[in-house]
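Example with several molecule types.
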Amino acid sequence: EAEEAPAVCDGTIESNHSGYSGSGFCDTPNETGASSEFTVDSESAGEAEVRVRFANDSSSGARGADVVVNGATVDAASFETTGSWSTWRTKTLTVPLEEGENTIDLVATGSEGLPNIDYLEHVLPDDGGGDPVRYEAEDAPAVCDGTIDTNH
Ligand code: GCU
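Resulting structure tokens for the full complex:
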């Protein structure tokens, strides 16, 4: 949760827009460099997926952030508008983690700051070690209430 230690919200913890989990969300100031930081404990070193839940009703569109892991910028994320401050989405990022404690910092690259940040989830590797199972939308038993197209 962005509002609970060891997470650090470089802003205020708010609860004035519904739909957040926990007790609130991180509302950063509208400025470049504003950040929301998470501490993630990883059992192993390697690439990992994390999901960031956010809301962005900014009329000026997407808000950008550097993804800084253990002090190094590893990626640039773009948080699109979600249509309202109470409409939340998750964005999946791939980050290199060390074994043990890691910091993952989202740092605003635009003067509007970050979107509102609800939480970060660390997606743990599948214990079975298998590949994910893919279900094509166009193949039974999937059902498409429309047409199967190939024009894009
Ligand atoms: C509004 C909104 C806040 C949001 C802010 C922003 O003030 O109520 O929740 O953080 O805009 O632009 O970041």
